[in-house]
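Good morning,

Attaching, inline, the backbone tokens for the sequence recovery test we're adding to the shared suite. The designed sequence is right after.
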């Protein structure tokens, strides 16, 4: 099940480490930053803030001084009711970045994601309720923590490169041992990997290509695999590298520049999910207000297109970004706050 909703409620087929690995990697596929999410995640060729640690570490070179960003996820409780008990999710992301003269650009990001109140039913065919439904053994939850450390450097007037080293730690709590489902209780995992990023501002080479940027983020180009403990087999599975590519184009019109405004179109291709396409558009007005629209398209047809939209307000050092993402399972709202020094 490759749905990117924040509510990955079929979280683990708890006896299968292969599915467990799929779940742990889904957490990093959620995306970060209300601005990027409002543009459908089409951000690889933009990545001009501290969330670049996630989207494309080469983009850290766009940070002029120092900034800190925090993202909170909001949800509608009614959308989480799965017909029995209430299931809740918890998401938080914080990042920081700075450019140090003569050294390069540094970034640090932390993501936390949790799901609680998930029902665990018995696989024993003799343990059923009066209506024939499986007996509920209890509820469990999962927690995931990701830490990203990044470095970016310019390779010339038009090209930047970057690397992100990341670690993930998490697992489940509250599981009941059930031999019929091969569930052996609480499970935990660790994962370490690295992303390589490249960002090219084509207009720096020739005025003909002014406004065009190209980006590549080789996600998990090197990794340790996801190592599980507390499962039946305690397997370690290798994570496949995912070469995300993107392009962005800002209209190079003088009337926009004269009004400190801009209009940008962007597109990313994510081959990990049988080619997931991201499309985004953003309009800034006088560097104060912004409006954006985005879409995620699953070319395999396994999911419906997911629409997103958002807005921003910038006041001196402070920037507030909002995004609404119509995930297939449930709509989710995001709020980002960025402070620049």
């Amino acid at each position: 099940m490759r749905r990117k909703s924040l509510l990955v409620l079929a979280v683990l087929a708890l006896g299968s480490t292969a599915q467990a690995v799929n779940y742990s990697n889904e957490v990093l596929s959620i995306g970060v930053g209300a601005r990027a999410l409002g543009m459908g995640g089409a951000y690889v060729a933009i990545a001009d803030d501290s969330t670049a640690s996630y989207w494309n570490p080469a983009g850290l070179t766009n940070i002029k001084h120092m900034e800190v960003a925090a993202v909170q996820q909001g949800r509608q409780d009614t959308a989480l009711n799965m017909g029995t008990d209430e299931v809740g999710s918890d998401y938080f992301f914080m990042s920081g970045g700075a450019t140090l003269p003569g050294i390069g650009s540094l970034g640090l990001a932390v993501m936390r994601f949790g799901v609680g109140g998930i029902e665990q039913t018995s696989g024993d065919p003799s343990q059923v309720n009066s209506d024939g439904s499986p007996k509920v053994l209890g509820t469990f939850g999962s927690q995931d923590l990701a830490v990203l450390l990044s470095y970016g450097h310019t390779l010339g007037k038009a090209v930047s490169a970057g690397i992100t080293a990341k670690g993930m730690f998490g697992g489940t709590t509250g599981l009941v041992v059930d031999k019929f489902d091969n569930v052996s209780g609480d499970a935990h995992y660790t994962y370490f990997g690295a992303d390589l990023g490249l960002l090219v501002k084509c207009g720096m080479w020739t005025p003909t290509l002014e406004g065009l940027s190209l980006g590549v983020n080789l996600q998990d180009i090197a990794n340790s695999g996801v190592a599980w403990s507390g499962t039946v087999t305690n397997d370690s599975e290798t994570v496949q590298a995912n070469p995300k590519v993107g392009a962005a184009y800002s209209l190079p019109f003088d009337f926009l520049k004269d009004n400190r405004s801009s209009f940008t179109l962007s597109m990313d291709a994510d081959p990990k999910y049988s080619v997931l396409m991201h499309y985004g558009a953003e309009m800034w007005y006088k560097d104060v207000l912004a409006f954006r629209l985005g879409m995620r398209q699953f070319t395999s047809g396994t999911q419906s297109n997911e629409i997103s939209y958002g807005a921003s307000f910038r006041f001196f050092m402070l920037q507030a970004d909002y995004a609404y993402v119509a995930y297939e399972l449930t709509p989710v709202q995001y709020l980002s706050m960025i402070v620049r020094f």
